[in-house]
Amino acid sequence: MVVSSARILAVMLAAFAVAAPVARAADDYPNRVITVVVPFGAGSPTDIVGRQAAQAISKGLNQQVIVENRPGAAGVIGTKLVATAPADGYRLLIITNSTHAANVALFKTLSYDPVGDFTPITNLSVSPMLLLANPVKAPVRSLAELRAYGKANPKKLDVGESGASTQIAASKLMELGGFEAVKVQYQSIPPALTDLLGGQIALTFADIGSAMPHVNGGKAVALGITSLKRSNLAPDVPTLDEAGLSGFDVSGWQGLAAPAKTPPEVIARIFGAIKAHYDAPDVHQRFNGIGLQVDTSADPAAYQRFIASETIRWSGMVRAAGIEPQ
Questions:
Q1: How far is CA 320 from the centre of its chain?
Q2: CB neighbours of residue 281 within 10 Å
């Protein structure tokens, strides 16, 4: 079959007609307001991360950026909104270990693909938790003492759980620690922490920002941190890994993503704006004030690999914890 030169030219022109607007849009980006969607409520740590990211993008790209909170269904509502948005860089998403890792196993049917529906831009922060003990109800000062006490007093201890991360952490604590405790369910960390301080429960996990004032005031004992590295926000608290629970790593994280197929030039500009802003010491101080640590070490390609691996890791931890999908 012989294809005429006119036909080849027509195909080339048609392809150019499609590609040219995309290229022009990328070259002109941004020329209107950008929206950063936070799939959790206003005032939450994730919301604070989103507002900081919006400020960084606005400053770096010289364009107005607004934050839109779309909470509900463990982040599914807001995440789905961005998954189906135009891939032009004008609607971005704050992603977390819930929306882009644990939810794969927490829901029987997830209405978005954490990997296929998004173009990751970079990580923003990490948020390990502290294992806390009430000094009266759990008369221990270290993880070693907790393990000994738990083994000697089966199910005498109780541990407050509030969401997937704390459920997983509690299950791993008992599995690796070799003791059993009664699980007490809470809607969120604050009421679990309140009950710990009041002596209604012996143990719980809480974010560093919420926990450290009570630790410093002597009302709670920090037995370990859930990350593999110590935190500069609580440098004297050992990791649970180094304290004897080998491989214990249940740390939350927050990052930034765009819809899949967003032009690479647009992604690069957003990434550059984030990096320039987050390198400032005052930004680190703001994050530290709410118990988060800045981490923008991953470029878009590295972050894509990270999310893919975290999806597998968190799915395994959810199943190991015996959490039934909704």
A1: 20
A2: 8
